[in-house]
Design a protein that fits this description.
Elements: H1 2-19, E1 30-40, E2 44-51, E3 54-61, E4 70-74, E5 77-84, E6 89-96, H2 151-156, H3 158-161, E7 165-179, E8 182-188, E9 199-203, E10 212-224, E11 230-241
Parallel strand pairs: 3-6, 9-11
Antiparallel strand pairs: 1-2, 1-4, 2-3, 5-6, 7-8, 7-10, 8-9, 10-11
Length: about 240
Amino acid sequence: MKNILFSISLIWLVFACGESTPSTKLDPNIHKGIALEKINATQYTYVLVNENGVEKWLACPLTEIVIGEPYYYMNEMLMTNFASKDLGRTFDKVYFVGGVSLEVPKLVEPGQVTNMNPEPVPQGQPHVGSAVVEKVKLPVDIAPAKGQITIATLYEKKESLAGKKVLVKGKVAKFSAEIMDKNWIHIQDGTEFKGDFDLTLTTKETVAVGDVVTFEGTVAVNKDFGAGYTYSLILEDVVIKK
């Protein structure tokens, strides 16, 4: 009987060891939380997350949030007794972050040329640093009309297009208002060139996240706004075309 029990225990141990997999540990600077609630204001999306059993509010640039999904974020800056004029609400504690992502964010050096830099923070709001949260690719497939150019082509031919006006159509992934006297828009059309699929625009126009819009603007490359906010490609002085 003892031999049988020993054999069963040995078999269980072998299977248990064979099925175990090493756990993947996040960088200590990266946080993960489950989205429980969201509130969109003019410039920010406020997200209530559950991080390791603790509920807390995050504030990030306007972003599409799916309740119940896990989001990654970093470079938290805690603000206590923060009054949101847009919401008419005071948060006991809220953590401002540069962005949230459904994928584990990639860390880059401040000032590195990338199309994934967060926008500068609106005046009067806390600065959350220049770390980057990777953009989430939207499930869109927008065919360009005559005279329009795709985002993939813009990235591929950006050097030859620098300084020229182009027409591009895309879905608004993010909108940040009145930063450095500009509104900042991120659009996607489903195309991609070497990992670049998200295009940043600056404008005086106002749009909503989720809108599909045609824009006309001037192509700029390696644009440096200072404080580490550098874009390999950006469309400036954009206007909406009907």
